[in-house]
Specification:
Layout (H helix, E strand, L loop, with lengths): L1 H18 L8 E11 L2 E10 L6 H4 L19 H12 L3 E7 L3 E9 L8
Antiparallel strand pairs: 1-2, 2-4, 3-4
C-alpha cells in the first residue's frame, strides 16, 4: 500500500516539475502518529502528502474504484489505489481517505486500528 502511494506521489511531483521546471520544488512527506479517529478506537495514522499535480474534483470520488486511473493510457492500470483501499479497509479494518486540490497537493490518510488482528480478505 505504502509503495503504491509513494509511486503515485513521485509520479505526480515529476509531472508538475515538467510543467513548472524553474519555480517548482517537488516535495513528498510522510507523517505517522497514534490517534483516536475511528469510533474512539486507537489507530495509527499514516499521511502521505505531495505537492504535485493534484486530483481534479470531478474524479476524486472515483480514485478507489477498480480500473480507474488519472494517468495517460498505458501508464496506469487503475488497480493500485483500488487494491490498496481493499487491503486497508477489508484486510485490516482501517480507513483510507484522500484530500486533494488540483495543481496544489494530494494527501492520502490511512488509519489502521491498534491491537486488532487483520481480517481475511
Amino acid at each position: 500500500v505504502l509503495l503504491n502511494l509513494f509511486n503515485n506521489a513521485f509520479y505526480a511531483v515529476q509531472q508538475r516539475q515538467q510543467q513548472e521546471p524553474a519555480i517548482y520544488q517537488p516535495t513528498v512527506t510522510v507523517q505517522t502518529r497514534r490517534t483516536e479517529s475511528l469510533s474512539d478506537r486507537q489507530t495509527v495514522e499514516i499521511r502521505i502528502r505531495d505537492n504535485g499535480t493534484g486530483i481534479p474534483d470531478k474524479v476524486k470520488d472515483k480514485v478507489f474504484q477498480p480500473f480507474f486511473t488519472t494517468k495517460p493510457t498505458g501508464e496506469g492500470t487503475g488497480l493500485g489505489l483500488s487494491l490498496s483501499y481493499d487491503i486497508v479497509t477489508k484486510g485490516h479494518g482501517g480507513e483510507m481517505r484522500v484530500d486533494s486540490e488540483e495543481g496544489q497537493f494530494t494527501e492520502f490518510c490511512i488509519y489502521l486500528p491498534v491491537n486488532q488482528p487483520p481480517l481475511s480478505v
